[in-house]
Design brief:
Oligomer: single chain
Mean pLDDT: 84
Shape: globular
Largest sheet: 2 strands, antiparallel
Distance between the termini: 34 Å
Helix content: 40-55%
Structural class: mainly alpha
Strand order of the largest sheet: 1-2
Number of strands: 2
Order of helices and strands: EHHHHHHE
Length: 166
């Protein structure tokens, strides 16, 4: 006999009480998955303009917002926004290795978003890393994110529900 793990839903709506039979819970899968559309950003503004204007703070804001929007877009993947930002802020503890890992994993999350949009994934964490060495990683990642946003046309506002491919 297996016991339910902590945090798992119990198979019955109410506990068994005397002469009353337990009622099984009917779990229904959603008819289709949906997520919130992401914001389309100007890649050159993300790459050069805003980092210069904000004296280098905007890349941290961008990194957090991109992770938060990716989670809002496809909730089937975990929320990594706060952890990603903390890895950048305190990455010196690991001699800069953990921020690089998170930066490369962002490419995989963007590729997953492209799959969820019904596109062929074209984003690569390795390419983002290589371009990041030359200072073009944010430009590459934002261009890849804009492909997902453009998939739904220019009429969908950020935060509006959009269908996801399963």
């Amino acid at each position: 006999m297996s016991y339910p793990q902590q945090g798992q839903a119990q198979p019955y709506q109410q506990p068994y009480q005397g002469g009353q039979a337990p009622v099984p819970v009917q779990q229904q899968a959603p008819a289709h998955a949906a997520g919130q559309n992401m914001k389309r950003r100007n890649p050159v503004g993300v790459w050069l303009g805003l980092p210069i204007i904000t004296f280098g703070i905007y890349p941290l804001v961008w990194f957090y917002k991109v992770h938060a929007e990716l989670f809002g877009y496809d909730r089937r993947v975990g929320d990594a926004a706060t952890g990603a930002l903390l890895s950048l802020l305190f990455g010196g503890i690991t001699l800069g290795i953990w921020p690089l890992i998170v930066y490369v994993k962002l490419g995989g999350r963007i590729a997953q978003a492209q799959r969820a949009a019904g596109l062929t994934p074209s984003c690569s964490g390795g390419m983002g890393f290589l371009l990041g060495i030359f200072g073009c990683g944010m430009l590459y990642y934002q261009l890849q994110l804009n492909k997902v946003v453009d998939r739904y046309g220019g009429t969908t506002a950020p935060g509006q529900q959009v269908p996801l491919a399963t």
